[in-house]
Amino acid sequence: MQIILRGPAAGYEAEHTARLFFPGAEKSENLTQEGDFVLAQSHQCTDLALLRLNGKLQWQTALRPQGEDAEYALCRLLYGMLCRATGITPPWGMMTGVRPVRIIHDMRAAGAGEDEIRARFLDHFGCAPEKFALALGIADLQKPVLDAADPMDCSVYAGIPFCPTRCSYCSFVSRTVGDKATRALVQPYVDKLCEELTAIRRTADRAGLHIRTFYIGGGTPTSLNAPQLEQLMSHIAKTFDLAKLDEYTVEAGRPDCTDAEKLRIIKKYGATRISINPQTFSDTVLQNIGRRHTAQDIIDCFAAARAAGHTNINMDLIAGLPKDSLEGFCRTVDRAVSLGPENITVHTLSVKRSSSLFQSDGLPQNLKDNPAGEMVDYAQNTLMNAGYAPYYLYRQKNTLENLENVGYAKPGTEGLYNVYIMEEVHTILAVGASGVTKLVNPKNGLIDRVFNYKFPYEYIDHFDVMIDRKRKVAEFYEQQF
Question: Structure pTM?
């Protein structure tokens, strides 16, 4: 399937409206003699949507109403035709954005009434009522957190770009610690990461920022050996005032590299929240996605975390994994609930082009028969009945059935960092390879970014250049006051 865009209004939104139905489609400049394509064309006051699917042509044209946004009008025409042609009605309608809940917060801040917000979701975007209800409930739950936020608050993210194995769906810049070349990078990387953490603490102080949450993510932080993990966490404890943090999360996601000693270290040095991420409790599915552990290993790791004193644990699950079934996913959800973690995050599989899953299988051209929607619905109903409330939500490109990722939490255990980063309410200071610092202007909410080097060897080799870039953080705040 090819996507052809013509005219001034046929841009990003039109392209991604087509991708709601054909996520594997490639952009093309010209119509082909053979093969399927979607064409979106705007010309003065007339729009055209044209589709060739399985050799059959379908099209629709429309005069654009005077005063209507040209880009929206073209997308609405294209969306309607593709719904009719494919029999698919995406649950989020025409919405292509990552942060639906942010729309509610922004409209409320601008003085919009609740009826206007509802119309924006249901009429303008064509969202399903149940998806709007989900987003609205999350916005209401988040409101006290956002109301209490200070413009000079910030969070720190430290990235560990190493894993014991690479999952088939993964697109992150992460290296497996099983090979000799990568193992040789780990200790120099930890040393430089500690150095950058010292620098970022000084930068935060100079900018007048108050650090509210700290997050060590990956990759897999527990792919570090115990002495390296202790080096990192003891350095953080010496460098930052942990007593002033509202939350300190460490991803301990993989049971094939997370043992009792590492769980003890994480607890000893002040973490208040961890993630142990099954993704699935099916041994067959685990093996298929490249995990070298069993479902029982996950259960044992969870028990070891409780024994080490961890009282706020998140578990990630993924709906739509290859070789999984609706029944199998339901068993996974039930098993997670039976363990009783404080948070359960339900992701929908997103097939990234750089993942081995995409390289081997490609993207499904038609999502009509995929069970991911039923999986997500079962998870939502089961978790809410078990006392978990949805507290943050985001969406990704190339996600099965154009669905969402939702974090659920027992009351009072919501992951604050997740809310802050998704709703972009304050600056995130990112350290480590692939880190992207997001600077949120305290006056108008506009965002600027500072990029670290992407790969671990670049991060180590060009460390001084990268540290020099971070001067922009303090300069950014000096310009505001």
Answer: 0.92
Q: For residue 268, what are its two tokens?
A: 């000893």
461 vs 447: CA distance, rounded Å: 28
| Mean pLDDT of each 10-residue bin along the chain, 481 residues long | 92 91 84 85 90 89 86 94 92 92 95 97 96 97 94 95 71 61 88 97 94 94 95 98 97 91 98 96 90 92 97 96 92 98 95 50 48 95 98 89 95 96 94 94 89 92 92 87 66
Residue with tokens 């698919």: 88
Residue-wise over 283-312: b if at least 16 C-beta within 10 A, else e?
eebbebbbbebbbebbbebbebbeebebeb
Measured CA distances, 317 to 123, 253, 276, 346, 411 (Å) = 32, 11, 10, 5, 20
Contact 188, 222 (CB under 8 A): no
Name the nearest CA neighbour of 254 among 171, 328, 177, 350. Answer: 177
One-letter amino acid identity for 147? Answer: D
The distance of Cα 232 from the centroid of its chain, to the nearest Å, equals 25
Q: The dihedral of CA 255, 259, 260, 262: what is its sign?
A: negative
